[in-house]
Specification:
The complex is a heterodimer of chains A (406) and B (135).
Chain A: E1 22-28, H1 32-45, E2 50-53, E3 69-70, H2 77-96, E4 108-112, H3 115-130, E5 136-138, H4 140-146, E6 162-166, E7 170-171, H5 174-187, E8 191-193, E9 198-204, E10 207-213, E11 216-225, H6 231-238, E12 245-256, E13 264-267, E14 272-276, E15 281-288, H7 300-313, E16 322-332, E17 339-342, E18 348-352, H8 362-375, H9 389-392
Parallel strand pairs in A: 1-2, 1-11, 2-8, 4-13, 11-18
Antiparallel strand pairs in A: 3-7, 4-6, 5-6, 9-10, 10-11, 12-15, 12-16, 13-14, 14-15, 17-18
Helix pairs in contact in A: 1-5, 1-8, 2-8
Chain B: E1 3-6, E2 10-13, E3 18-22, H1 36-44, E4 52-58, E5 66-72, E6 78-82
Antiparallel strand pairs in B: 1-2, 3-4, 4-5, 5-6
Classes of the chains: A alpha/beta (406), B mainly beta (135).
């Protein structure tokens, strides 16, 4: 797997223009979702007089901090539809963007450790198949065949009782994904403006007409928010609330190792997810820190817990050393599903609430959010993810249903 | 790892505690009168403050009592610990203030520490939930 040559370190792939005084649309947030949104606005809707504003550097937030897992084996129809659409886009994007970001469909395994897990998993496999998502149930022996380093013996606290497996799932090089989108956006005429922090919005009545930034005010007809953990802060500037809580989410990598881990293994019950990056680091993550936080760091006991889980499942990791740990700020909702659609402010649109699972959705989030911004009404894939669902009660409760905790 | 001063037990590791989210969210006075919008607000909408945030914690492996805490969500500095039912301490920095200077705990919020000089702290003697604990 990692014998593949990594792409050359790129030259500058986009301009660094000064902000113009006005745009047809402004996207706040230069991460994966913001760049994908801008790309599809330009490509599918012909909107090229647009800007992506990034307060730091391009793709330096959660896009630089995620564990790069891509899968679509969600339980509920609405989720399966949007994540599976994303997966289909991942399959064609390297060619479309003319950039090989090493999307590696090495499969994702979700382990079952209890009878409850087994029942949930088999149910989810059935639901996935009905939704056209590739999924299968593996017994422990099949688990071992696919991932020989996994401990499937009975001598651990929560023995592996089987797993769901999605062969088309996998990982991609997250930085290269961002650069691929950024280069195409730039070619299409989109202004990517880094070091440009939004400090407020200009409104005419209930309609947004401009964005105030540390580099001056920019007039615009439409604003799309793609700010992940800072969505609530921007919404407050614009005068509305979002049902979001921002939490730290931590991940870690080991030093480099020979290829030992051929797939992606996720365990909701002992709570860790592990893959091996192309370069050779073991990449791990788990759940959020319990408290609200904007600090891009969390508490060490969370790291300890996920490493303990990893060592129990993969005994050969016991001698691996942690190279670094880090944290991002994830925007969680109470039903563990995203919010993509209109907002209480006219001409302002929100794409947020992806919580711990936004990377895999990047292409579909961009596609549907661009549709929403361009036409003023949602794409059929993001219609169920409207902000109004918290009022109507039509929640899409992926807590515990989405194969791993969100 | 946060080091949290439980009002009853003193300083303990964060792992002994359970997070309870935003403090001072009252149960609706007249639940039957609420519109769908108001129910949505009560059930799903909470402040997501960047800066000083009043929140509830439960010392789940200690005294098993709830208490309130004022904590900066950027620096994670704990600025005050105070009982359930008590108002948010006055003079606390406004929401959205990104840089909050570290301040010593103020007199009414002080927690008695083992070994602290007598009279420098107001000891908390209550081991039961104070009135208004649901708020």
């Amino acid at each position: 797997m990692s014998t593949q040559q990594l792409p050359e370190h790129p030259d500058f792939l986009w301009r660094n223009p000064e902000p113009k005084s006005s745009y047809d649309a402004v996207i706040v947030g230069g991460g994966g979702h913001g760049l994908a949104t801008a790309y599809f606005l330009a490509k599918n809707h012909g909107m090229t007089n647009i800007a992506v504003l990034e307060k730091g550097w391009l793709a330096g937030g959660n896009m630089a901090r995620n564990t790069t897992i891509i899968r679509s084996n969600y339980l509920w129809d609405e989720s399966a539809a949007i994540y599976e659409h994303a997966l289909k886009l991942w399959e064609i994007l390297p060619e479309e963007l003319e950039y090989d970001f090493l999307f590696s469909q090495r499969g994702v395994m979700n382990l079952a450790h209890t009878l409850g897990d087994v029942r949930e998993s088999i149910r989810r496999v059935g639901a996935n198949k009905l939704n056209g998502v590739d999924a299968e149930w593996l017994d422990p022996q099949q688990v071992k065949e696919l991932c020989p380093i996994l401990n499937i013996s009975d001598n651990i606290r929560y023995p592996v009782m089987g797993a769901t497996y999605q062969p088309r799932a996998g990982i991609a090089k997250h930085d290269h994904v961002a650069w691929a989108f950024a280069r195409k956006c730039d070619e299409l005429g989109v202004d990517i403006i880094q070091n440009c922090e939004v400090t407020g919005f200009v409104k005419d009545g209930n309609r947004v007409v401009g964005v105030k930034t540390n580099r001056g005010t920019i007039n615009t007809e439409k604003v799309g928010l793609c700010a992940a953990g800072h969505s609530s802060v921007l919404a407050e500037m614009a005068g509305f609330r979002l049902p979001i809580q921002s939490h730290p989410l931590q991940a870690l990598v080991s030093e480099l190792h020979e290829p030992v881990h051929p797939t992606v293994v996720m365990s909701n019950h002992v709570h860790v997810y592990v893959s091996q990056a192309h370069k050779g680091e073991l990449v791990m993550g788990a759940g959020v820190d319990s408290y609200n936080g904007y600090g891009q760091r969390g508490s060490f006991h969370v790291i300890e817990h996920q490493m303990a889980a990893a060592v129990e499942l993969f005994p050969i990791f016991a001698r691996a050393h942690v190279l670094r740990t880090w944290g991002g700020i994830v925007d969680t909702t109470l039903d563990a599903s995203p919010i993509v659609g209109t907002s209480p402010v006219d001409n302002m649109f929100v794409n947020c609430g992806w919580g711990t699972g936004g990377f895999k959705a990047t292409p579909a989030a961009g596609l549907t959010f661009a549709h929403t911004i361009a036409t003023g009404s949602p794409h059929k894939l993001n219609q169920p993810f409207a902000l109004e669902r918290f009022e109507t009660g039509a929640l899409i409760d992926e807590h515990g249903a989405a194969a791993v905790a969100h | 790892m946060l080091l949290i001063s439980c009002p009853n037990c003193g300083s303990r590791d964060e792992t002994e505690f359970h997070y309870g989210g935003q403090a001072h969210v009252p149960y609706p006075e007249n639940p039957n009168d609420l519109s769908d919008r108001e129910w949505a607000e009560f059930l799903f909408y909470r402040d997501n403050t960047k800066g000083a945030f009043a929140e509830r914690w439960l010392h789940s492996t200690g005294c098993r009592q709830w208490f309130n805490m004022l904590r900066d969500t950027v620096t994670y500095d704990i600025q005050a610990v105070y009982p359930m039912g008590a108002p948010r301490p006055a003079g606390a920095p406004d929401a959205l203030s990104v840089v909050v200077p570290k301040r010593p705990l103020k007199q009414p919020e002080l927690i008695e520490q083992p070994g602290s000089a007598p009279g420098t702290a107001a000891p908390s003697t209550s081991t039961t939930a104070p009135e208004g604990a649901t708020k």
